[in-house]
Amino acid sequence: MVPAPMVARFSHALPFWASLALLPLVALAAHYGGWALLLPPAGAWWLYSGLDALLGRNTDNPDPETPSASLFWYKLVTWIWLPIQLVMIYGTIVYVTQSTHLAGWEKLGVFVGVGILSGSVGIVYAHELMHQPDRFERRLADMMLATVLYSHFRTEHLLVHHPWVGTRRDAVTARYNEGFHRYFLRVLVQAPRSAWNAEKAMLARRGLSVLDGANPFWRYWAMQALALVAALLLGGWEGLGLFLVQAIVAIWQLELTNYVEHYGLTRKYLGDGRYEPVRPHHSWNADHKATNWQFINLQRHSDHHYKPSRRYPLLQTYPDNEAPQLPLGYPLMGLAAMVPPVWRRVMNPKVRQWRKLHYPEITDWGPYKRGEHPVPLVR
Predict the structure, then answer these.
(1) Average pLDDT score over residue span 232-236
(2) Residue 235: count of CB within 10 angstroms of its CB
(3) Secondary structure of residue 3 in the 3-state scheme
(4) pLDDT digits (tens, 9 = 90+) for 158-194
(5) Can you give the pLDDT at residue 379?
(6) Which has the closest alpha carbon to 119: 157, 81, 163, 175?
(7) What one-character-per-residue DSSP string does 110-153 give?
(8) Which partner for 323 in 43, 171, 188, 318 could form a disulfide, CB atoms 3.0-4.6 Å apart?
(9) Helices 180-205 and 340-358: crossing angle, nearest 10°?
(10) 155 pLDDT exceeds 90?
């Protein structure tokens, strides 16, 4: 176990600041176009996967009792990303729409790169912040999500995904044999609806109408409208279109990650509309060193679902018999997921092995695969 005084050191937190090194790659793409458009995906997807091959896995666990006050350097990088992301998105809109050296396809390529960072960094940081009790951090998360037009993710993630992961009530638990492309279209429809219904139910328990100002969707929509208007004012219709490109790329990356994190894993049905509690083996885990620096330990996803309020530097990893392990980090697993036959060839045997290890008493998985068990009761 890594002791708390060592965890608190700036040198221990520094690798998690790796996201800042990706920003010059977007600037180079915008300045040069052409070959330079490959730099953001090369940095965000391939560089850290290559480092994983060199550095391997990190199975050390930090002291989970490390006080929050000792984690300043870990928190700071997530706090400063909002202004960085605003400058990256809107500054690039101004630069690209006023440039004369970039062709139309190059401008699109630049904003694919912007979306790679707003998705693989911005949404990941927003995810960390939305789980915290501090209102300042939750507001930072809201603003970052508004810049990718996915504000409902906060509600859906906290009120639906975490309580109901591994059941039919959770739209973003990828089903066994469900290809990513079908999953993506399904989630784009179901997740906003389930988030709205979750807020509606919470307001009803307080005796409030869904139209009440306490419904966060009014804030979500207002912030997203402001983000769109800013793009239009700074870059005209072209700027608005480029803004939408980065948002789509960011959302695609988020849902690709969601797909990888829970594919084929289900909680045991106990009868009477009840399911077993969430345990570490209900999420795919990955403790590859470099990609966990990049994704601020999001790949230690088994512990995140087991202890959702635990800050990212304190997330634990588990041995193979306690949590199922991904063979590679998120970027390469996402690449495999884009080709469903490859994904099934890699992951279906692992799902079947997981079933035998954790649920040897279940001999018929048909009802789970077909979604025949009832939706969990909300108590």
Answers:
(1) 98
(2) 21
(3) coil
(4) 999 999 999 999 999 999 999 999 999 999 999 999 9
(5) 54
(6) 81
(7) HHHHHHHHIIIIIIHHHHHHHTSS-HHHHHHHHHHHHTTT-THH
(8) 318
(9) 60
(10) yes
